[in-house]
Prior knowledge:
It is built from two helices and four strands. It has 101 residues and is an alpha+beta fold. The protein is globular.
Amino acid sequence: MTDLPLVAVPGGRVEYLDVPGDADRAPLLFLHEGLGSVRLWRGWPAAVAAATGRRVVAYSRLGLSRVIGMIRESVDSDDALALFAEDARAAIRLFRRTAPR
């Protein structure tokens, strides 16, 4: 996988993968708990996009990609859920900014 684009999230920037699809179909956002880096998805997002015809976006969790940024400390489960929600909101903003017109 070559260099990937970056998107701003609270606390830094993360890399993301955006696989094009049919603009008339709802896009798929890959959320993950254990796979912190988009690179660990390997060819699966492209395979899902090809099989479904939908746009697919996957992103790295902050501190778990090749991008140097804030590495989050261990947090309790309530804080982890809040951080996950922040990352997901940033990814949804990306969908809106880059949606085909």
